[in-house]
Design goal:
Strand order of the largest sheet: 8-7-9-10-6-11
Largest sheet: 6 strands, parallel
Oligomer: single chain
Number of helices: 19
Structural class: alpha/beta
Strand content: 15-25%
Number of strands: 23
Shape: globular
Length: 554
């Protein structure tokens, strides 16, 4: 060894290496720093390699690490794979190593290249897609009892259309299936009806959704317990962890807001479905894809393997709602009713050159709602992006400055440059799963008490005490991005849709934003911004291999 690792590795790094790579891990890293590519940034590993006298040029291990980081970056964009040529080119260029091959790329076992040599994928993502495909085939091969959907034309006071009858039949009998459709078409009605039928036959089931807010809403509309998928699957490192060997103890798993499920979560959930159990996915395929990698719900629908029911007909009250009518118009690429004089819609129109007025107009709209006696639980401000003068970071600063209580004890949430001072009454959101507290990413709460270095938070009707590191996983939530609010609903949403947001405006994003409202939408923006959102069909297709995946093939 030419040199010692010196100060490049601190005690915390060494502990992590030992924990993840075992007792011999440090020795392995000192021989080849790039074996720790899943633990540290490339820059840090390069510094360690230099300290150890290891060359970057022509280094196979470093080239593999470059490929891994390229695929990591793709995951952040939602893609499960990249063209193998792209990964090889980046690795060769970074290491000045023209002879680096696909065989070299896969030699560490962290990357899988397809049989035809066209695509490269991180091994855990490949394994997840393989497991999903195998489970879907297994579920589809199971035989379920036939049942005449015509028996459902009338149940109690309900009059069900043909699609709704099929949806209930699927929920009630299918081994695996999908029910999809926009708001107002009866997904909730179908779910409740199917649950009543399952109850009558004493069939056990669990209800779940990707976020806490979506799970609470599922509970409210069905009158049955519902949990987040993470809670359903257990809280590591302790707690029961359902999987293939310890399946969920139920006959049916019903999942809502399924468009938010990424490929890794889908694999974990499907693995927990027992050999005699069924699973049904409910959602809206027109919403934004998940924050994580893949497009599981869309791929499931496009697979032509899983039975799918598309609910399309607006029913009763929905026909008279600005929200539901215009959601359909957005999907069809038609203009929305900006000048409508209806009780469930308000339009704060700005000029194109008034981008700087978005924040002040938001505060005016919020002040109006509060003066009407509305609580913060009843509405949410939504914007297309985080950064910029009209992004959620700046809007949160303005809203906090205007509406946060004065003279209250304060506590710091977040970390480093993302830290914020908050006090009693402030709105916050969980930014990372906290298994110890049982609070998961995306759950919104309110600061109830601040004392010393602790804060008691209210999440709906539950309270949790935050201190120390837990406080770092909170952020202000007066204003949230559209991606952040997917799966949630409020009586009222304030949607910022000014042309200043530029390319961030697109049809799926706008549709998702306005359909977060149950009873009233407030739009703030200019006509150009609205039209840009409607006309932009920005390609949201992700690179996934699920629809072509077959077990055992790369």
């Amino acid at each position: 060894m030419a040199k010692d690792s010196g100060p490049v590795l601190v005690d915390r790094d060494i502990q992590r290496i030992t924990r993840e790579l075992g007792a011999a891990g440090l020795k392995l890293v000192q021989q080849d720093p790039y074996v720790a590519s899943r633990l540290f940034p490339l820059k840090k590993l390069d510094a360690l390699a230099r300290a150890l006298g290891i060359s970057e040029r022509g280094n196979v291990s470093r080239a593999i690490a470059v490929g891994e980081y390229a695929l990591d970056k793709a995951l952040l964009n939602g893609d499960c794979y990249l063209p193998a040529f792209t990964v090889l080119h980046e690795a060769r260029d970074a290491c000045r190593f023209s002879r680096f091959t696909a065989e070299d790329l896969t030699s560490r076992g962290t990357i899988v290249v397809s049989e035809d040599g066209k695509t490269a994928m991180l091994a855990p993502i490949f394994a997840a897609e393989q497991a999903i495909a195998a489970k879907i085939i297994d579920l589809c091969d199971r035989q379920c009892a036939e049942w005449d959907a015509g028996e459902l034309a009338q149940i109690g006071d309900l009059e069900l259309d043909v699609d709704q009858q099929q949806a209930i039949r699927l929920l009630y009998r299918a081994s695996i299936g999908v029910v999809t459709g926009p708001p107002g078409v009866g997904k909730t009605t179908c779910t409740r009806t199917a649950l009543d039928l399952l109850d009558a036959e004493h069939v056990s089931y669990v209800l779940c959704a990707p976020t806490g807010k979506a799970a609470r809403r599922m509970h409210e509309v069905t009158g049955r317990p519902a949990s987040t998928i993470h809670r359903l699957l257990g809280s590591p490192p302790t707690g029961f962890r359902p999987n293939a060997d310890n399946p969920l103890p139920c006959g049916v798993v019903i999942v809502d807001e399924s468009s938010m499920i990424d490929v890794r979560l889908a694999a974990d959930l499907l693995a927990a479905v027992g050999s005699s159990a069924r699973i049904i996915f409910i959602g809206d395929e027109n919403q934004l894809p998940p924050v994580g990698p893949g497009a599981f719900f869309s791929d499931l629908i496009a697979s032509d393997v899983v039975p799918v029911v598309h609910l399309k007909t607006l029913h009763r009250a929905a026909k008279h709602s600005w929200i539901y009518r215009n959601a359909q118009a957005v999907l069809a690429g038609r203009g929305v009713e900006l000048d409508a004089d209806v009780p469930d819609y308000t339009w704060y129109e700005l000029e194109e050159d008034q981008a700087g007025e978005v924040g002040t107009t938001v505060m005016r709209a919020v002040a109006g709602l509060l003066s009407e006696g509305r609580s913060w639980d009843e509405f949410q401000v939504i914007a297309p992006k985080k950064v910029g003068a009209s992004g959620t970071i700046e809007l949160n600063k303005q809203l906090h400055g205007e509406f946060s209580a004065d003279g209250q004890p304060k506590i710091t949430i977040g970390a480093y440059e993302d830290s914020h001072q908050v006090c009693r009454g402030d709105r916050v959101i969980q930014t990372k799963n906290d298994y110890e507290l049982g609070i998961f990413n995306g759950e919104c709460g309110e600061i109830a008490v601040v004392e010393h270095a602790r804060a008691k938070l209210r999440f709906n009707t539950e309270y949790q005490v935050y201190k120390g590191v837990a406080l770092r996983n909170l952020a202000p939530s007066y204003a949230l991005t559209v991606h952040r609010v997917q799966g949630s609903e409020w009586p009222i949403v304030i949607v910022c849709v000014h042309s200043v947001y530029g390319r961030m405006l697109n049809r799926r994003l706008f549709y998702t934003a306005i359909t977060r409202a149950k009873s009233h939408v407030i739009l703030i923006g200019d006509e150009r911004g609205v039209m840009q959102a409607i006309k932009s069909t920005q390609d949201s297709k992700r690179r996934t291999g699920l629809t072509s995946r077959r077990p055992g093939a790369a």
